[in-house]
Structure formats: C-alpha cells, structure tokens
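debug: dumping io for the single-chain case to check the tokenizer round-trip. Nothing else runs in this session.
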Amino acid sequence: MTRKERVLRAIEFRGPDRVPFLAYAPGMSDIFIMAAMPARDWQPDDAYYPHIYPEAYYLGGWKYKKPFPRDLMSQGRERQDEFGCIWKSPVGEGIGEVVGHPLASWDDLESFPLPDPHAPGRLERFTLYRKLFAGDSFVLGALENGIWERSHFLRGFSNMLMDTAAEPDRAARLADRLCDEWIIPLINRYADAGAHGVIMTDDWGMQSGLLISPASWRAIYKPRYARLFAAAHARGMKFFLHSCGDIRAIMDDLLETGLDVFQKDDIAFMGLEQIAERYSGRACFMGSLDMQRTMPGAGREKLYRETHRLLRLLARQEGGYIGMFYGQPGAAGLTWAQQFFMYAAFRRYGRYPIF
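debug: decoded output
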C-alpha cells in the first residue's frame, strides 16, 4: 500500500493497513508538506524583520535584503508579514501574536491590497522538493491562516469580534475577498503543483464554546467554508482544517459543508469518549496526543497507554485517524523524546485491526 493510499483510506474509512502518520521527515512520514513562500520581490518595511519561520526561510528560496537573524522569533523583534500585519513574540521564542493591524478602517475594505497568489517565488522551491522527496506520499499544501484568523489579524481581534455582531456584511465581504483573491487561487496552485490536499488554520474555540455565537458563525462563515471545501474537491483534493479549542458547536456544520479532516492538537479536553461516540466512523481526525492535558510531563508508559486509548476510540472504524508530531513542542513544554515515544506507540498500536 502506498503512503498516499494509506492516507486516503484513513480519511474515507476504507481500511488502511495502519494509522498514517505525519512526521515532517521523509521516510518516517506518510504525508509530505508543501508551503507557499512570500513573493520573490516582497520585502518587509525597513522598520521590521520578515515574519517567516526560519526553517521555511532556509528551505523556501525567498531572500531577505539584510542578514537573516537566527533568533528571528525571539521576544522583542517586530516582524511584518506579506499582508502588512505586525507580529511580536511576547515571551521567549515562538510564532507570537499580531500587534499591528493594517485594516484599521472598514473604509479601506475594497481598496486594501492583498498579496498576489500567483507571484513568482510562491511555490517553485517546494514544487521541486515534492518531485525530489515526496515519493509515494500524500502531498499536503499549507494554506496557513484562514478566513477568520486573517480577518482578525487585519482588523484586530477585539474589533473583529465586535464586527461579527455589528458589521456582519463587512465581515462577510472581507471573508469573500480572502476566499476569492487569496485562498482559492492558492488551492488551485497547489493542485497544479501536484498536491493531494490542503490544510488551513482557523482557531474558533475557547476552552468552552466558540469565540462568536454559532448563529453568527453560520451566517457569515459557514457559506465561505463551503466554497473553500468545494474548490478543493473540484480539483480532486481533500481539505484539512486546524481549529484549536472547543468547536463542538460547529463540527456537524463543517462536516455538512464538506470538511474531510479535523486537525486537532487538543482533542481530549472535549471528551474523547463523547467525541468518539458522536463521530467515530463519520469524521476523520489528525493530531498528536492532547498537547494541553495529556502530553505535558508524560513519560513513556503514559504516552503508550494514551495513544492506545486514542486509537481504540477514534481509529477503529476502518480509518478515521492520522497521527502527527506536534509542530511546536518547545512552546507547549513538550520534548522531542516524548514525541518519538508517541510515534513508536502509533506504530505499535496503529496496525489494523485495532483492538
């Protein structure tokens, strides 16, 4: 069975030989990640550093006009992304948060410039890597921030929360522009580059419930997600959505509109047994063990036990689960030793049939 077929069978509940795993390393991983880079001719304003993962910088072919700092993501360095948003890490090192929001006024909604998804340099380097290293893997294109995250990056988080209630038509229009001018063209570019699926991040949950009312979410965002999922499906691709927090109120809506895979790093706090009772056999999940409640401080025995429990609950219906390393272990107080114990447990307990 090829790695691509293993992933597709897990998503479609068609009986893979074992639970697939995303390991960010050729040879270990069933999934190969492609990433879009900044446009070749883009540079941040002189007052800022570029907001780009150092790993992506060294691999992706985009070049900064100044010497690239090794501690780019450290506290105190202000960074600008291609949309004009300003990022800063408040403590330690990490992706940080947006502290400068360029779409301050709705008066600028129609004239605000979005990046060109077709710009030279966007996908050329990772298209080459796919040809060299992906082999028979399932190729997954990273769309990064979705319609909600990019909206509040542009407008400001508090502003955007209020906008969904006070300015729903403008919130919807911003989401439409992001879909039409950025995300859907990127979906098509990934399809042209040989991807089999795309993954987008939109964190919708708090520790209990959604950030906005389910009614507002359904009115503004559900139709736009349906368009994004349909665009991927029209090109024969699967759609993965990362969304942290308690999203139980909209999980059925997302499935109804065509989502293929929930990517969750914090699934346990929603209640594994309850999620399994409701979704085992009808929804596919991808993730590590819960990085909030299960992994911190866990030793080998606990990691093996909890992995076995997770798979027995969510991966027993001829598919339904894809394991993965947590992408930023240091930021969550995790170690790579824990991640490798988890990987070993997936390999031990993840062969079908799962008991």
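debug: round-trip ok. The chain has a mean pLDDT of 95.
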